[in-house]
Amino acid sequence: MATKKSKRFIQVVLLVSTVVSLFFVPWPIVFVWLKPLPDSIQQQVDAATDYGFEGIIVCVDQAQNEPQFYTAGYHNRAQKIPARPDALFKIASVGKLYDAVAITKLVNDDQLDLSGTLANYFPELANRIENANEITLKMLVQHRSGIPNYTNVPNFWMNPPQTNQETLELILDQPANFSPGEDYEYSNTNYLLLTELIEKTVGFSKFQYIKEEILKPLQLKNTYGSLQEIDMNRLMSGYYVGIEEDMKTDDNGSMIATAEDVAKFIRALNDRSIFTENEAEIYADLYRYGHTGLIPGYQTIANYHKELDAVVIQFTNTTDFNGYEWSLSEINYNRIIKILERKQNQ
Question: What is the pLDDT of residues 255-267, one digit of tens each?
Answer without folding.
Answer: 999 999 999 999 9
